[in-house]
């Protein structure tokens, strides 16, 4: 098989890159090791920056997002008995975010690719990139008992943190930076009305909590838990009681509870791989970086990677210009590190790291300053709605 771009990974990053390239007539194939149902079953973040919204519009998949997504012009932070609002529109001069589930976004991309008869190859086993340090890279995989080779010009590694793409990078070149946090998020999805029209982030003496949503009828809520905790230890009743104990009383009194339709515990980490290019193989999304979800940056960083990489590939094929490809890693990492910093800041600001009351008092002091300083609040809002992609 011969194609121009072989994309490893059929999650949002790989699918979005595939669609953007197809629109420009650039041949590509997506290789995904899981089933389509498995990919759609992943419950992930749903707060989209304007960069991500614009890119989905460019890809021709924004119609349902604009019809069903929820535009949020701000969010609340609860702490020390207070509930304070971050007014994103006012503080940023008009910017906001869109709440739209990653599952829905992924389905939209799958549908548009299927309509164009550009379906990914699902259940591609033993996918492996080869010769990406030469002018003739290739990817091999097994499907239905057959060994298949894909010859290509470039490889895009969009296969996540545990994928083969980064694992295949030369160890003498690859540098990895990591911070593992000593807690996780217990998340519950439920068919219940959200407690607020906007997200509520909570700093409490009992630990962090977040009240979010997927729609007007579906809530997504989280509480900080120990890494030793298990789902069996958290029946629904205990989860809702704990969440209420961390919310301000006025909010807790209006919380609608109900049976969970999905429940999971996710550890938190910050991770960055440098560089994001190895010859003719490029990393994008979780293959190159992981952020704690506190800053709502994971999917958005994947989108900004794809924004840069797709434009670079389009310039290469349409204008015979490899300049942007050569700058891809530097441009992407510039935004990655800034988003990692913000996610790290939000995580340290809102979570309980120790039992030391001094640490808690420092958090409360920082939060109080945040809502008394227009400059501090503006900096938080600017980062939350998404920084520009520099250099494009």
Overview features:
8-stranded mixed sheet; single chain; 5-stranded mixed sheet; 19 strands; FAD/NAD(P)-binding domain
Overall residue-averaged pLDDT value: 96
Query: Largest sheet, order of strands side by side?
Result: 6-5-13-14-15-12-16-19
**Proportion of residues in β-strands:** 25-35%
CATH topology-level name of the domain at 5-72 and 98-178 and 269-352? FAD/NAD(P)-binding domain
- Total helical elements: 13
Describe, in short, the structure shown.
This protein has 13 helices and 19 strands.
Topology:
Elements: E1 5-8, H1 12-23, E2 28-31, H2 36-40, E3 47-48, H3 50-58, H4 63-68, E4 70-72, E5 74-79, E6 82-87, H5 88-92, E7 97-99, H6 102-115, E8 125-130, E9 138-143, E10 146-151, E11 154-157, H7 164-167, E12 175-190, E13 200-203, E14 209-213, E15 219-225, H8 236-246, H9 249-252, E16 260-274, E17 277-278, E18 281-283, E19 289-290, H10 298-319, H11 323-350, H12 357-370, H13 374-385
Parallel strand pairs: 1-2, 1-11, 5-13, 11-18
Antiparallel strand pairs: 3-7, 4-7, 5-6, 8-9, 9-10, 12-15, 12-16, 13-14, 14-15, 16-19, 17-18
Helix pairs in contact: 1-6, 1-10, 10-11
């Amino acid at each position: 098989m011969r194609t121009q771009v072989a994309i490893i990974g059929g999650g949002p990053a790989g699918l979005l890159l595939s669609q953007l390239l197809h629109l420009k007539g650039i041949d590509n194939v997506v290789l995904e090791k899981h089933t389509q149902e498995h990919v759609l079953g992943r419950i992930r973040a749903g707060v989209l920056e304007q960069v991500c919204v614009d890119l989905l519009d460019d890809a021709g998949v924004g119609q349902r997002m604009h019809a069903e997504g929820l535009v949020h012009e701000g969010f609340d932070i609860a702490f020390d008995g207070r509930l304070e609002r971050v007014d994103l529109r006012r503080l940023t001069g008009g910017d906001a975010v869109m709440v739209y589930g990653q599952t829905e976004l992924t389905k939209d991309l799958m549908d548009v690719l299927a309509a164009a008869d550009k379906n990914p190859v699902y259940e591609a086993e033993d996918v492996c990139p080869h010769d990406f340090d030469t002018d003739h890279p290739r990817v091999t995989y097994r499907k239905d008992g057959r060994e298949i080779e894909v010859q290509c010009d470039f490889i895009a590694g969009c296969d996540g943190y545990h994928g083969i793409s980064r694992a295949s990078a030369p160890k003498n070149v690859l540098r990895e930076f990591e911070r593992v946090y000593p807690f996780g998020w217990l998340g519950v999805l439920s068919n219940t009305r959200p407690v607020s029209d906007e997200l509520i982030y909570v700093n409490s003496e009992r630990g962090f909590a977040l009240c979010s949503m997927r729609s007007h009828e579906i809530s997504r809520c989280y509480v900080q838990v120990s890494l030793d905790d298990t789902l069996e230890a958290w029946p629904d009743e205990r989860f809702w009681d704990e969440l209420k104990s961390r919310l301000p009383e006025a909010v807790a009194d209006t919380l609608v509870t109900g049976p969970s339709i999905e429940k999971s515990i996710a550890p938190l980490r910050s991770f960055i791989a440098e560089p994001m290019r190895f010859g003719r193989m490029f990393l994008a999304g979780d293959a190159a970086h992981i952020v704690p979800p506190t800053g709502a940056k994971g999917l958005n960083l994947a989108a900004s990677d794809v924004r840069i990489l797709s434009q670079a590939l389009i310039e290469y094929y349409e204008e015979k210009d490899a300049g942007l490809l050569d700058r891809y890693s530097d441009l992407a990492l510039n935004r990655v590190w800034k988003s990692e910093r913000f996610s790290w800041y939000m995580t340290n600001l809102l979570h309980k790291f120790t039992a030391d009351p001094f640490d808690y008092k420092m958090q409360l002091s920082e939060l109080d300053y945040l809502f008394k300083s227009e400059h501090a609040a503006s900096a938080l809002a600017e980062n939350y709605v998404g920084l520009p992609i520099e250099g494009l």
